[in-house]
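Good morning,

Attaching, inline, the backbone tokens for the sequence recovery test we're adding to the shared suite. The designed sequence is right after.
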């Protein structure tokens, strides 16, 4: 985990020779006056560690090797234990002391200079080290930004999942139908959504949608679309009036030319009749005991494209025990490592092999089957299901 680091880099000089401090201040007086360089001084490794604790802006430790109380090589070990990538150590040793210099470089020193110190060489070394530290601190700052973004996305994902209903139990007893749904986003947040709600004692609304695009913008548009559809539907309007009203609002408010495909239906829980509008979405399937059948399209345009579009509705009648399954194209367009899509045919064959299952198990097993087909390939689109079973009276 990185830490917040100041931009200014302070240099800590660690040397037990008392004339080192005045010599450094004299040689670098112009840089000190112009505040391009800033120095602190310590006379052994113990004092150096105290200085580093007091001044987090220290980025360079210029340390002699031979010192009392704690020598430079021990200090180097202690500094490495701090695990601060923006802190670099330059070792100073007598000319010809190659054994200690080699030990220091193997121990993590960034560079070294020899005594007697050549201050021109020291200035070059300091500038090189400052450049390296600046680069590292820039990387750490970018890393911290990415961590914050990731945290925000994780929070957004939790919020998005929270606004999608996931309690299906109130509709499983005496409601006349069972319902189940699932949304698996391709990224931290997705553009797919589903929703369902009781309109009155006899009518039950349900919707599935797929926003164009991905990422944050799609997630925001998804939340707006889902909220508008729910709020409008709960007024009890017909499915086509609901879609026309929401479409006008989305066309008016869409600043980035986004649109959403949607299927909205109202189930009559007494007789199994469903009034529906398909706004450019995939055709759902009716699953019977021995066959499957696509629901007829209504030739509706995706929401948010054309403000004055007139939506037409159609009706279907579910018999007792029949199921209606809605999905988004992330299912059929899921690709494996060979870029082969899962496809409609494979999807339909899966249904034919699993007609005896509950709607919940069909959806759960579909997710597993698609995942097994995709294998190690990255998920390219959100995968969403919504299904219901009409149980009859």
């Amino acid at each position: 985990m990185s830490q917040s680091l100041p931009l200014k880099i302070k240099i800590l000089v660690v040397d037990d020779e008392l004339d080192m401090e005045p010599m450094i201040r004299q040689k670098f007086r112009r840089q000190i006056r112009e505040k391009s360089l800033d120095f602190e001084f310590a006379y052994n490794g113990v004092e150096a560690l105290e200085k580093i604790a007091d001044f987090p802006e220290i980025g360079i430790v210029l340390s002699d090797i031979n010192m009392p109380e704690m020598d430079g090589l021990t200090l180097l070990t202690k500094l490495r234990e701090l695990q601060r990538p923006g802190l670099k150590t330059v070792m100073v040793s007598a000319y010809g002391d190659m054994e200690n210099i080699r030990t220091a470089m193997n121990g993590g020193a960034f560079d070294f200079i020899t005594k007697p110190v050549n201050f021109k060489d020291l200035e070059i070394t300091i500038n090189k080290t400052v450049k390296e530290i600046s680069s590292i601190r820039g990387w750490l700052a970018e890393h911290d930004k990415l961590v914050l973004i990731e945290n925000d996305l994780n929070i957004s994902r939790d919020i998005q999942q929270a606004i999608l209903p996931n309690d299906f139990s109130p509709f499983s007893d005496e409601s006349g139908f069972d319902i189940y749904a699932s949304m698996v986003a391709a990224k931290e947040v997705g553009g797919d959504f589903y929703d369902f709600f009781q309109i009155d004692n006899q009518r039950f609304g349900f919707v599935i949608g797929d926003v164009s695009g991905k990422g944050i913008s799609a997630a925001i548009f998804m939340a707006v679309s889902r909220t508008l559809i729910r709020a409008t539907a709960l007024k009890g309007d017909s499915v086509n009036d609901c879609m026309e009203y929401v479409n006008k609002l989305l066309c008016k408010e869409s600043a980035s030319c986004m649109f959403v495909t949607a299927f909205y239906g109202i189930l009559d829980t007494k007789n199994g009749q469903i009034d529906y509008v398909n706004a450019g979405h995939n055709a759902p399937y009716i699953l019977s005991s021995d066959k499957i059948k696509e629901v007829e399209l209504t030739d509706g345009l995706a929401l948010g494209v054309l403000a004055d579009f007139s939506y037409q509705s159609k009706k279907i009648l579910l018999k007792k025990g029949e199921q209606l399954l809605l999905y988004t194209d992330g299912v059929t367009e899921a690709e494996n490592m060979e870029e082969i899509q899962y496809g409609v045919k494979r999807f339909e064959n899966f249904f034919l092999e699993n007609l005896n299952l509950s709607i919940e198990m069909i959806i759960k097993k579909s997710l597993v089957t698609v995942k097994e087909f995709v294998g190690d390939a990255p998920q390219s689109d959100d995968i969403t299901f919504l299904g219901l079973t009409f149980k009859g009276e």
